[in-house]
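Re-running the complex after MR caught last week's input typo. The corrected sequence lines follow. Everything else is unchanged.
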Amino acid sequence: MLSFAELLNLSNRKYQELESGDIPWIRVGTAVCGDAAGADDVLESLRSELDKRGISANISPVGCIGLCYAEPLVDILKPGQSRIFFKNVAPDQVAQLVESYLVNNEPPQDMALAYSGNTPVNGIPSLDSLPMWKHQVRVAMRNCGEIDPTDIYQYIARGGYSALNKAIFGMEPGDVVKEVQDSGLRGRGGAAFSTGTKWSFLVGSPGPVKYILCNCEEGDPGAYNDKGILESDPHTLVEGTILAGYATGASNGVVFIRHGHEGPITRTQKAIDDCYELGLLGDNILGSSFSFHMEVSLTGDSYVAGEETALMESIEGKRAMPRFRPPFPAQSGVWGLPTNINNIKTLSYVPEIISKGGEWFSSIGIERSKGTAILCLSGNITRPGMIEVPMGITLKEILEDIAGGSPDGHSLKFLQTGGPLGGVLSADQIDIPLDFEAMAQAGAILGSGGIIAADDRACAVDMTRLLIAFCQYESCGKCFPCRLGMTNIIEILERICNFESRPGDMELMRNIGQNMAGTSLCGHGQLGWNPVQSALRFFPEEFAEHMEEKKCRTGQCLGPIITPQRTRSRWTSAQPLELRI
Amino acid sequence: MNDILSYANIPLVRNSPIVGGELTAPSNDIRDRITNALVNKNAKTVTVLSSLLAVEDEFGYIPSRAIEQVAIHTKSTINDVWGVASFYTNFRFTPPGEHVVEICWGPTCHLLGSRDILKYTLDALGLTEEGDTPDKKVSLKYNTCLGACSQGPVVHVDGKILGSQALGGLKGDALAQKVSDMISNLRSNNSE
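Corrected-run output:
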């Protein structure tokens, strides 16, 4: 077993060869956004093109750098030159790219997005000057798109696991908790609870077996940042989890991912396996007396599985339905043992906080909300992607400067933030800072960080119907206010969309919604009225138009909505099953 | 694990013909495949859910006899296993078509035109809602989020994810044509 110093040495040597070796280092973004744009075909044609010409190069499939609008993104670092990013590279453009840049050393200007490095490249802007890049402060996403996520040595060479080494050999567990408390880090899964305080609940719970759960269920449509981090830099999560384990005296970590997302699952599994091999996980980590074990747990398709107690049920292999509290997870969580549950993004900050200190982290952001926010921008905007910006930046800056506003001369109409339960926020309200409290005051939630922009082509009533259709489909069915309430609300909304609303529908819907909010067990039902409430608050005239004038100004409501069948009982339509008892 | 299976004393093959004659295929093969999936492809921590996911990965659906094998394997009741299997929407209980097309209907994809893609796909397949074509060539599935929102609208075809660029950013009739071509390609391409 290598000591950490030896490991660091080895990693540095390997990384040196890539960064300043004699052959080019080519990185291709192959996260799910890259794949959807055709990155795997690009990678394949790049390999065969280089083979054909006999050019040797190091090719690394990397994760998502966040500039998703430019995918498939190929970046080439030639020895002694600046690194150049090429955007929207189609498989049939690869030959031209290789010919002009790798052979003739003339980067094709029309394909180039930006350069990064000390030597400016003629006619190509620098990465730091790109509107999508210049506002960013990258802490948790520091390695995204920079390193091969399946190569632990690249992570270590860029400072990885040094925080773990520092903590295990230089800090008491209590110091780690204190550092995280001092940093002001708040949970990034939606509830925004102080992470250090949450950890301190687990410290006092009796061991020896205690769990740290990392929540990457991420069922929110419009948010892919958790999966993005796991696909681009799984080690930052693994290191953060081990640190959380050290700080709280936990013995096991579980990464919880939805079945079917192969990229995040295989890359996280590989990261964990590599850590076991190098002694960064398992018994006596790095030769110390601290032991910690990790595994990946998969869940089926269920949105509510992301709720903390439902998640525990799912890890135990049961239906993902929320539990009653108390007992709270810190006393009795998964398998009845003390448990602490954190979002992926929260844990991904921890290595940098321990390396650079809590004070450094709290210097980013604003008074109540420290640090950065990792956001996914999608919908009717010019530059969709995944960004990490300091807290306190306004939503207006994000949408106009970073995302480039709405395309084709349309104007922004509303935002849908924080997952379907977050509801909508009118475009005239977006001059507010990115801050948990300020957003809540404006009637939106930051939630998991998904921001979906809709322009004037979208109908507010139609969007509300879609959000409620999602909530109805995903209601777990445990408590009836949510199970029946969602069904009733979607029925009323469909009537409104079909211009068949009845007198009293609005009062009925409000009644049901308020009951649902007051009497449901978990956030799904409690916040389930939010989408309608927020739409009614910002766009009452559109509802009135649909209900009284029987028309829709955008035409989006026309036609039936196509969503899955109403309940989670799809199996009833299957052939009758023969059961032998 | 074989010990548990034999302890339960469930016959490996049904020897006598069944009234109605449904189960005529030699089931040994299926049983072995299920056992293999349960033992070799399961997660580190074996649960009802992890076992069902292993079976789903192996077959693409949950064969009815897998329910009881999972129950035996995880020392649960058939009721428990059914409870879990019917809850998670990714499980299906009949074999899927040769090709599986998944279409995202999340808010982002909805705004970017997934409704048109859905409509044209349904037309091309001759379906009115998600399900299998009568010839079992193609299964259509709706998905709440495929995780590539920045590339929306997103379609998932036989495990390959396609964003708007792959569909050419088309609209109207051109999109209908593109979708219909994609479906007929799938139909004619038997050996995946």
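None of the earlier attempt is carried over here. The two ends of chain A are 53 Å apart (CA to CA). Chain A touches chain B through 75 residues (CB under 8 Å).
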